[in-house]
Design brief:
Blueprint (H helix, E strand, L loop, with lengths): L1 H7 L1 H16 L5 H16 L5 H15 L12 H11 L4 H4 L4
Length: 101
């Protein structure tokens, strides 16, 4: 039976779901977001892995897990640095870069 399940991809399907569930436990999301994730994961479990919708749902859940929920970085607003980057990446175009008052 195990061999047949492996050939049909059932074992890897269960492994994907288990991996997603483990990744979700590390997320800093609120109860609403966690409940939505659980709902979408249950939807994935009910789907046939052979259907095209399965890969769409799996990709959606991967994206859901990849988002940095409640994790923030410090913003760095340095206009002089921005000017250097713009000048480096967009050589020329002086008229576009100038601000008109």
């Amino acid at each position: 039976m195990k061999t047949i399940q492996e050939e049909l991809g059932v074992v890897s399907f269960e492994h994907e779901v288990d991996e997603m569930r483990m990744r979700s436990k590390e997320k800093k999301w609120d109860k609403f977001v966690g409940a939505q994730f659980d709902k979408e994961l249950a939807k994935l479990q009910r789907m046939n892995p052979q259907l095209a919708e399965y890969s769409v749902q799996r990709n959606y859940l991967d994206f859901f897990l990849d988002l940095p929920w409640n994790e923030f970085s410090e913003d760095k607003f340095h206009l002089k640095n921005a000017q250097k980057i713009l000048d480096r990446d967009h050589f020329g175009l002086e008229d576009v870069k100038k601000t008109h008052h």
